[in-house]
Amino acid sequence: MKVIGDYNRKGGVGKSFTLINIAAQFAEMGHKVLLLDIDSQMNLTQFFFENNEVLYDEEGNIREDAASIYEVLEGECEIRDAIHTMSFNSKRKVNNKFVNVSFDMDIIFGSKNLDYFGTDEVSVLRDRLEGVEEEYDYVFIDFPPAHNITTMVGLLACDYVISPLQLAKGASLNGYRDVLARCQEAEEDYGHDSLVILGTFYNGIQSFKADQKEMLAESYNPEIAEALSLFNTTIRLDYSSAQICEAEQAPLNVKCAKTEINKEFKELAMEILNRIEQES
């Protein structure tokens, strides 16, 4: 089992949406995946479960008995009891024939109570995941845009970290610098010397804008690209497809499989797999 965190200190760079679609590509390839939401904003959770009666009551409030990652970390429930399976099916035309594509993704809810989480056992998430390590190929963790104890607990559970950047938001680069610092802290202060920063990728690219096209070209200067560990794949801004996915509560490879953005996520997922293989 490999654990991958999607982390950038800067908010609004698309961490949840990119993580969902990377994980969905892994699942479509046949890998058994688990998604963890450790962000108190619960963007990943809401993407899949907004207005779902398992999570919300009839008044739209989160149910008190909805087991989340918070209860798992606090030891109030077993990790298996907090897992919810989402099944996806779609039809695609391949070589003039329609084929069925189906896969599952397991998800553990986030919680607003994560803002109040505190522990001296920073390896608690890693320890909890040991209970299901034989059941999953990959675990994906959606991080909060913050540095707190929850962030460090998440980092100590990770084998790899990926980080989305946005050309139009210079602050996302500063957020990535904070990722580097926190990963160094995980190693030096907590002994997690096997954590690998797998790479960064640009999200929300608007290549029709001259300034972004120029900035992107400059970023792929070999020296800069190496310093940022940039993946070759960039993810375009596709507001329409994102809206469809959010409305239908399903990833791109289910609802917008023919789009260029879905193809880019497939390419990015393959790059991530290749880098993991190289690191291993």
Q: Give the neighbour order of strands across the main sheet.
A: 3-4-2-5-1-6-7-8
How many helices in DSSP terms?
11
End-to-end separation: 12 Å
- Shape label: globular
Strand tally: 8
Characterize the main sheet. 8 strands, mixed
SS-derived structural category? alpha/beta
List the helices and strands in order. Answer: EHEHHEEHEHEHEHHEHHH
Q: Unreliable segments (pLDDT under 50, ≥5 consecutive)?
A: none
Mean pLDDT: 91
Residues in helices, as a percent range: 40-55%
Quaternary assembly: single chain
Walk me through what this model shows.
By secondary structure, this protein is of the alpha/beta class. Helices cover 40% and strands 20% of the residues. A hairpin with a 2-residue loop joins β3 (83-94) and β4 (97-108). It starts with a strand and ends with a helix.
List keywords for this structure.
20% strand, alpha/beta, 40% helix, 11 helices
What can be said about this structure in brief?
By secondary structure, this protein is α/β, with parallel strands linked by helices. Helix content is 40%, strand content 20%.
Helix/strand layout:
Layout: E1 2-6, H1 15-28, E2 33-37, H2 43-49, H3 69-73, E3 83-94, E4 97-108, H4 124-129, E5 138-142, H5 149-157, E6 160-165, H6 171-190, E7 196-205, H7 210-219, H8 222-228, E8 235-236, H9 239-248, H10 252-255, H11 260-279
Helix pairs in contact: 1-11
